[in-house]
Amino acid sequence: MRSGRKFGWIIALFLILIAAIVGFNARATAKERETALIINVAARQRALAERYIKDVLLKVEGFQADPQEDATQLQRTALALLEGGEVQAVQGADATVTIHPMKGDWKTIAKLQQERMLIGKLLRTGNALLASDRGNPGFDQQLMQLRIIGAQVSGITSDAVGEMTKHAEVALWRLVWVGVALGLVGAAAAIGMALLLKRIGAQQTMQFRSLVHNSSDPITVLDESGRVQYQSASAEHVLGVPSSELLGSNITELIHPGDVATMAGAIADLLQHQNSVSRVEYRLGRGDGAWRNVESAMTNLMSDPTVRGLVLNTRDMTERHESEEKLRTLQAERSSLLEQTVQATELERKRVAAELHDGPVQHLTAFDVKLESLRDRVAREDAEGAGRLVDQLQGQVRNEISELRKMMTELRPPMLDERGLSAALSEHLASIERDADLVCSLECDLRGRLDPAQEVILYRVAQEAMANVLKHARAKRVWISLRENDGRIGLQVRDDGVGFDPSSISTSPMNGHFGLLAMRERVEMAGGSWTVTTSGGAGTIIRAELPKEIRTL
Amino acid sequence: MNATSPGATWVSVPRVLVVDDDEVLREALCTLLSERGFEVVGEAGDGAQGVSLARERHPDVVLMDFRMPGMDGLEATNLIKADAPLVQAVVFTAYDDQTLDLEAARADVYCLLVKGCSPQLMLDMVRQAARRKWELESARTRSPFRVDPT
């Protein structure tokens, strides 16, 4: 906007300058023409004076002549040259020329005044001669005088014309210089204007080029056969090769073989319709052999003389495609995980039900049966038999209580709520050590209790990791650590077992590693991170990290 | 003593085989049965062992747990009855489930008892099952061509 307004001002000034030059030239030309006429009129005085002398002589000799007419013209012209007025432009013609009073040129004025005075003297001498007789003794003397004065008039007139010519020449030169100067100014203005226009044009071109060249989406111009005529620099980001290398290549050489037909069809359709736009999705080959998913908006600008091609505005959709794919995978993973969670919950319920069936229900039924036996012994007054049975029953009831406590602890360790994560883990490890041939060590440098939700997550991760160690690792030792660092709580479970192939868990939760994936999901949902490091024969390290600040889900 | 001899049917001692995977319960059942005048001819910890003992010891009644590792109670009952169709089975289950009744009926189980019922009921059922077996046996002995209406 600002450059447009500036440009308008410059154009206006340029036009004013051009008008001034043309006006000045017109006025100066008119003035020069008038000066030339005046010089002509002034020069004619000399001829008039000579004709007057000739007419006087003719009249004196008795011939037909009218010196008076010449005298009148001489006087009128002399007056007009000095004070202004209208005189005949050419001797004997009707055309007149208006002479403006002479001003400024004092030398010419002085000459013209002198001429007028001499003309007066000439006319007076002429009149005296006309009045005298040819035979008069002073006649020749008077005639001589007339000729002398005539020569003087002629001389002064020449001087005046000379002065006038000189003055006109000076004025003409001045005019020429002014004209040259104005011409130079005009030329300079025109050059300036041209440069300015060029600069503005170049600036706009640069601006446009920069916009096109630096647009994040590559812009390509193709000819009718699909050959690259222009390629913006941003293509390098997408394709990994300088855009200059693409010039002259056919678009079909750059795209995936599976998409060539689609692209060729789209180009053919587009060429049928001027100024039409179509969109096409395809894969572009990178320099390194990988493919990028792109979408091009193609415009047919064949009829535009500044383009004469198909313009492709291409957007790299690879990351979007990848994100969508990742999202789909995540959704599938999550949905699968949800299904597995539901299944796991059901399995857990089934396990609890089976434990209740196999344990408490059988044993309580047995107690019931034994109490029936006890009733018999009491009725028989078999105190010894009854006492034995009571002892047996008491032992079995205590055993049952212990079993139920174990089951309860597995479901939800009371220690976790009562004394926190470290104590609950310590109890869990002690119970594992009692039942299995495994040495466990626990290191904990947590400062105080964590949020109960975090304690449960980390406990379950450790519990699952330990279950895996017992089931699969064939380990001799397990090291568990709980640390707090930079506002994050880290749990690490490391064993010296056989390890496993980590690639088997990376694909999907369907591969039978539900426990590991459930751990990861549980930790990630709480805003933490989870990793497993393992390889065949090198043991396994499971790390879970949670932010100390609680994330609300 | 000999349950199979005619005329001695109602005073004979029922011969019982106890099959249960829970040792505590099995031992309690055997003790109570013995104390109440039943003859416990054997005890087995799973279905397969139960089938094998039944072939060997010829019980009148098999007191069988329903849910056991490996062969379950109904399958074992089917196998036992395939060898000795008159042997009666009293099946003991922790599940109070209507669908089990159907399965039990199909396996020709004498009765299905839910664990938690009174031990006396269990003893009565075992006794009745033994009687049933004897009735069937005596009917067969009296006339191989007569169909017993009971």
What this model shows, in words?
The complex is a heterodimer of chains A (553) and B (150). Chain A has 4 domains: 2-197; 215-316, PAS domain (Beta-Lactamase), CATH 3.30.450; 333-411; 413-553, 2-Layer Sandwich (Heat Shock Protein 90), CATH 3.30.565. Chain A contains 14 helices and 12 strands. Chain A has helices at 2-60, 67-83, 106-131, 139-214, 235-239, 251-254, 260-272, 318-379, 383-411, 414-419, 421-435, 452-473, 503-506, 514-525; strands spanning 85-88, 96-99, 219-222, 228-231, 277-285, 291-301, 309-316, 439-444, 477-485, 488-495, 529-534, 540-547. Chain A has a 5-stranded antiparallel sheet with strand order 4-3-7-6-5, with helices on both faces. In chain A, strands 8-9-10-12-11 form a 5-stranded mixed sheet, with helices on one face. Chain A has a two-stranded antiparallel ribbon with strand order 1-2. In chain A, strand 3 (219-222) and strand 4 (228-231) form a beta hairpin. The model of chain A is unreliable at 507-512 (pLDDT under 50). In chain B, strands 2-1-3-4-5 form a 5-stranded parallel sheet, with helices on both faces. Chain B is globular, with a radius of gyration of 15 Å. Chain B has 150 residues and is an alpha/beta fold. The model of chain B is unreliable at 1-9 (pLDDT under 50). Chain B has one domain (14-134): Rossmann fold, CATH 3.40.50. Classes of the chains: A alpha+beta (553), B alpha/beta (150). The interface between A and B is medium-sized, with 17 and 22 residues.
